[in-house]
Design goal:
The structure holds two protein chains of two kinds. Chain A is mostly helical. Helix content of chain A is 65%, strand content 0%. Chain B has 21 helices and two strands. Classes of the chains: A mainly alpha, B mainly alpha. Chain B: It is a multi-pass membrane protein.
Chain lengths: 110, 491
């Protein structure tokens, strides 16, 4: 299972990096959000995948580690905020500049 | 346990929330921000005196004993940085009253300012590596807002770049935390330090260490500073001062903390990396500072040089050079804040940021000119001023370790700092005035702030002995992680 997850993380990273390297600002934003998804899966995988009951509540033979899930939740909230900001920024610079191509950005030096 | 430790985070947080509701009442916003700034300085000074007499303070969030809960740690290094950050940010706040403009004030400038401070103080005080990530993000998202506030084309362009770089580096940060958790199974920094020492810092942990180094170097502008000169040129002077004085220093703090507490067992590998990155930073930063002819870029490259210098102190790794690095870091927050304020005053007085179209300003603005001159001497490290003590301790430590090449690079970069700042002084203040007459700008309020900071720079230089008693206490903990671990894991 770990191997499958690792491959999935790799593919997400790959697509994310590919999108970040493209010219359109919108694709770049999508790329960053895929990259953060990849890293969240990585966090889950690295902490070890296992079946078990939720800790604290009730008794069982095995428990799952709750910490990575708490970390992922925190990180999702943060990346949600940052992505929202990035979208607004992309939209605003599209409005100001009339294009979302990163290439044309170089020319406008105030 | 000491609840005092959470106040430096709680006060700006509460202030920021209150300020959101006072959108149109700009005067009230100013008063509240200033009061909260003053209160923070007071609390920070109180913390320093308590840490000085009682040793390291800790606060366990929700009463969960470490290593399970999140712990806040006030060792001398952290509280000294909090104190300096609160003083410098208060000065920058006062400078923004007269320079930032009503438009930005109305659109939540002071709110973002306070949120940024939450992130900065939190990063200094936390003792948990994931919590450090969270405070980094608090700081960064406020900085995205501050850098884009105003929405000119230049700002939008630079914010896109700055945002992208930081998202990528934050992603790497989470990945590094994930690997670290997989390797040693904890996130509390003191506990991490113990476990890494037990496991022996072999191949895997060295890779994780380098990953952390990359992440923090991107934030601090250590070698990976390609984004810094452009991004820091976009916002207005007050925001630039805030970024130059605080943001890169938080990255440096994280580097110093991780490489004096966590990854200390293989200095031949990690610290050599830091040393050569520091050398490259100093050389490339100096080249940039000498090459450019507009004020913001010259000042930005000066920020980069000093980042290299502090990292050099860390890489040397002797007790002397660690003390020097702490001292220099404190000096640099103060001096870089002042440098950007003075730079902003020069730009608003000259009406341009190009050195080529300035000149002869010493006649109209003698005070500004001489303040800039004294600051330049302080940044280079001329004896009675604050840059001297830190520099000499770092160099003495490095020379005793036989790092001659790096020391020469450090000294050479100091010389080029002098050269670049004298270029600004000579072209802006000497020579003939430009043909089109510039209207005289009133700089009274800004001058008062700058003079206050300059007095502190001078006082920190003359009173170096007094500052040293605190700095050496900070250096002591950095030199022996056992002290830090003991304070947190004692129960």
């Amino acid at each position: 299972m770990e191997l499958v997850m690792a491959v999935a993380v790799g593919i997400l990273f790959m697509i994310g990096v590919y999108l970040i390297l493209s010219k359109s600002l919108l694709r770049i934003v999508l790329g960053t959000s895929l990259l953060t998804h990849g890293v969240h899966l990585l966090l889950l995988t690295m902490a070890g995948l296992k079946r078990g009951a939720a800790p604290v509540l009730g008794k069982a033979d095995t428990y799952v580690d709750p910490l990575p899930q708490a970390l992922i939740l925190t990180s999702i909230v943060i990346s949600f905020g940052v992505t929202a900001f990035f979208f607004v920024l992309a939209y605003r610079s599209y409005q100001t500049r009339g294009t979302d191509e990163m290439d044309s950005i170089k020319e406008d030096n105030e | 346990m000491s609840n005092l430790l959470v106040l430096p985070i709680l006060i700006p947080l509460a202030t920021a929330v209150i300020l959101i509701f006072l959108k149109e009442k700009i005067r009230l916003q100013r008063v509240i921000s200033a009061l909260s700034g003053l209160l923070n300085i007071l609390i920070a000074v109180l913390l320093v005196t308590r840490v000085h007499s009682e040793g390291i303070l800790t606060l366990q969030m929700g009463g969960w004993a470490p290593p399970y809960g999140i712990v806040f740690v006030g060792d001398m290094f952290a509280v000294l940085l909090v104190t300096m950050a609160s003083i410098v940010s208060f000065a920058i706040l006062c400078y923004s009253f007269s320079s930032i403009g009503e438009q930005r004030e109305r659109f939540y400038y002071y709110t973002f300012f306070q949120f940024l401070l939450v992130g900065v103080y939190g990063s200094f005080l936390t003792g948990d590596i994931f919590n450090l990530f969270v405070f980094f993000e608090v700081m960064l998202i406020s900085s995205y807002a501050l850098i884009s506030l105003g929405g000119t084309k230049l700002q939008l362009r630079e914010t896109s770049k700055y945002l992208l770089i930081n998202i990528v580096s934050s992603t790497l940060f989470v990945a590094a935390v994930a690997y670290l958790y997989a390797a040693v199974g904890t996130l509390n920094m003191a506990h991490l330090s113990q476990r890494i020492a037990e496991a022996g810092q072999g191949g895997v942990l060295n890779v994780i260490a380098v990953l952390f180094l990359i992440v923090f170097s991107l934030k601090a502008g250590l070698f990976l500073f390609f984004w810094l000169p452009g991004s820091y040129s976009a916002p207005p002077a007050a925001v630039r001062a805030l970024f130059g004085a605080l943001l890169t220093k938080v990255g440096l703090y994280a580097i110093i903390r991780t490489f004096t507490l966590l990854f200390v067992n293989d200095p031949g590998f990690t610290h050599d990396w830091i040393a050569w990155m520091a050398a490259a930073t100093m050389i490339l930063g100096s080249l940039g500072a000498v090459a450019y002819r507009d004020v913001p870029r010259i000042l930005n490259y000066n920020v980069i040089i000093s980042v290299g210098f502090v990292a050099f102190g860390l890489a040397a790794g002797t007790a002397d050079s660690m003390n020097g690095a702490v001292f220099y870091l404190l000096h640099d927050m103060l001096a870089k804040g002042l440098m950007f304020i003075l730079g902003g005053m020069i730009i608003s007085a000259a009406g341009t940021d190009r050195l080529g179209s300035m000149g002869g300003m010493i006649r109209k603005y003698p005070l500004l000119g001489w303040m800039f001159f004294i600051l330049a001497l302080a940044l280079v490290g001329i004896p009675p001023l604050s840059g001297f003590a830190g520099k000499i301790m770092i160099l003495r430590g490095a020379l005793s370790e036989g790092m001659l090449t790096l020391s020469l690079i450090g000294l050479g970069s100091s010389f080029l700092v002098l050269f670049s700042l004298m270029k600004v002084f000579r072209l802006a203040f000497w020579g003939n005035e430009p043909k089109e007459e510039q209207p005289k700008v009133s700089l009274k309020a800004a001058s008062a702030v700058a003079a206050g900071l300059l007095l502190l720079v001078i006082a920190m230089g003359i009173g170096a002995e007094v500052v040293y008693t605190y700095v050496s206490q900070a250096g002591e903990v950095l030199a022996s992680p056992a002290l830090y671990i003991e304070a947190i894991m004692k129960e």
